[in-house]
Amino acid sequence: MTNPSRFKFSRNRNTTVKNHDSHTLSACQTLIDTFYQMHLTIFVSVPELEIVDIKAHVDYSIDPVENKAIKELSRLKNFRIGPGLRKVIKGLVSEDIADSQLIFMFEEACQGIILNLTREMATQLPDHQDIDVQVFRDMVKTNTRLYNRCAAYSKGSTLVEGLDLKQEEIGNQ
């Protein structure tokens, strides 16, 4: 027979991207679970994809490193969202907070910005099952920051096969 007083866990994670103004997107990331309740918002200039502001709040956390992470988030201001995101983040923050929930939330907010920009392109795609691969290749050519951001747009994928992307276009991988 199961014990109803046993530990139970619940987690809700949410990312919302909005147009803050004509030149800025905001991405709000919220984490609420049994151990954490935290909120993080990044403001990103468009089309540069540069982080112009970061706001974070920890309502409660079982890990004191999250409060330290709030102070280090300012190191990520002026950071440009693009390829090598995780590596750059880990290089900018101290090692003891690199794996914190808030840093993960920051990365997720950046991914939300990328997906929001991809969504705009995707709405222009034809509404049928067999979409020509060239449509996706053109998306990567237009926005080279998509390259290496997911398996579909990674080196070796048929979606980017044959693209001639110069290293300075895609940044350091």
What structural keywords apply?
single chain; 173 residues; alpha+beta; Enolase-like, domain 1; 2 domains; four-stranded antiparallel β-sheet; 25% strand
Descriptive report:
- Helix content is 30%, strand content 25%.
- Strand 2 and strand 3 form a beta hairpin.
- It is globular.
- The protein has a four-stranded antiparallel beta sheet with strand order 1-2-3-4.
- The protein has 173 residues and is of the alpha+beta class.
- It has two domains: 11-120, Enolase-like, domain 1 (2-Layer Sandwich); 127-164, no CATH class.
Could you give the topology of this structure?
Blueprint: E1 11-21, E2 24-33, E3 36-45, E4 50-61, H1 65-72, H2 85-92, H3 101-122, H4 133-142, H5 167-170
Antiparallel strand pairs: 1-2, 2-3, 3-4
Outline of the structure:
With 173 residues, this protein is an alpha+beta fold. The protein has five helices and four strands. The chain has a four-stranded antiparallel sheet with strand order 1-2-3-4.
